[in-house]
Design a protein that fits this description.
Number of strands: 7
Structural class: mainly beta
Strand order of the largest sheet: 1-2-7-4-5
Helix content: under 10%
Distance between the termini: 59 Å
Radius of gyration: 17 Å
Number of helices: 1
Largest sheet: 5 strands, antiparallel
Order of helices and strands: HEEEEEEE
Length: 151
């Protein structure tokens, strides 16, 4: 048996007036996620994916930070339990001053949505996928000219 608390993983932060939003950041605490190599070395958790979600930040004069996708399973032959925290995923992070919303997130087990705030029992072959939201944009998006440059 093992217990691990590994998920301080986060989505994108909203854009600021003069800077884009931060990618996959635990704002406002700034707590860093434990590297997946450390988690895999200390617990039977295996990550298939941990990557930024391209395009998940809201458009704007400054774009929102990117969310991330994390996919993992547990290397076990027995059922296992996971505290599912699925809040703050279904509503898009709003933009401000004409900035567009970031993408919503999702919490999936074997591709099926999970919508609970409780401990769930999973099978040895179950795969958990977290798609964490992107941040909202700041200001009206700048239109691109015919040559792709900002106008």
């Amino acid at each position: 048996p093992f217990i691990t608390a590994m998920f301080t993983y986060a989505g994108g932060v909203g854009a600021r007036a003069t800077k884009p939003g931060l990618n996959a950041c635990s704002y406002p605490t700034g707590v860093a996620a434990v590297p997946i190599e450390v988690v895999e070395a200390s617990a039977p958790i295996r990550f298939a994916t941990k990557a930024l979600r391209e395009g998940s930040g809201g458009a704007g004069a400054q774009t929102g930070g990117l969310g991330q996708t994390i996919e993992f399973s547990v290397d076990t032959t027995r059922e296992w339990e996971l505290n599912a925290v699925t809040s703050r995923l279904s509503h898009a992070p709003e933009g401000i001053f004409g900035g567009e919303a970031g993408e919503t997130g999702s919490f999936l087990v074997n591709g099926e949505p999970v919508r609970t705030q409780a401990r769930i029992t999973l099978r040895p072959d179950d795969v958990v996928t977290l798609q964490l939201p992107g941040g909202g944009g700041y200001g009206e998006p700048v239109a691109a000219g015919a040559d792709g440059s900002a106008s």
